[in-house]
Amino acid sequence: MDSSLYTDKIHSAIVSASHPPAPDPDLYKPTAVMALFFFSREPALLFIQKADREGYAWRNQMAFPGGHVEKTDASARQAAFRELYEETGIVSENVQYIGSLGHFQTLKNRDIQAFTGIWNQEDEIVFDTEEISRVIEVPLETLWQTHIEKGFAGRRSRPGVMELTYPYDDVVIWGVTAQIVYHLLEVVGGILE
Known about the structure:
The chain has four helices and nine strands; from the N terminus they run H-E-E-E-E-H-E-E-E-H-E-E-H. With 193 residues, it is of the alpha+beta class. Strands 1, 2, 3, 4, 5, 6 and 7 form a seven-stranded mixed sheet that branches. A two-stranded antiparallel sheet has the order 8-9. The model has no long low-confidence stretch (mean pLDDT 92).
């Protein structure tokens, strides 16, 4: 399947799906992330691994590029693109925006609005090693196979935080990032079958 066919199917699946709604804004601090698809050998998602620093709250965790919505951001979407640039050097002009995947809450009272798009790979990835140790390409097919093998696909309710993990090579995607991956795979996984 060529990338334009994948792009159309991903776009259609995300735009037509139902996504988790926003919680009470008085209870959560707004944050935003960008889940980027791209096509090298096969469809993949772009993740960052947080830096391995003593005392760093997100030490070694896998995440999508993102961060807090600042007062200067016109919207959560703008915050996601700003953070994407700050963390990876990817500019919004090189991302075909698809839409929001909805809202996901953390145990530390953060509401993460996840956005998605397709990156054309015309940027050189650059990042601050004090914050990020590496950028990782994870094939969509690998995530989908894990989703199926662990019995996540098609479940009536999302698995609990301890069960919901996506191992890949020497890392594990877990926590709220795994919740976003779970939802994303439930929405677009059918295009991989």
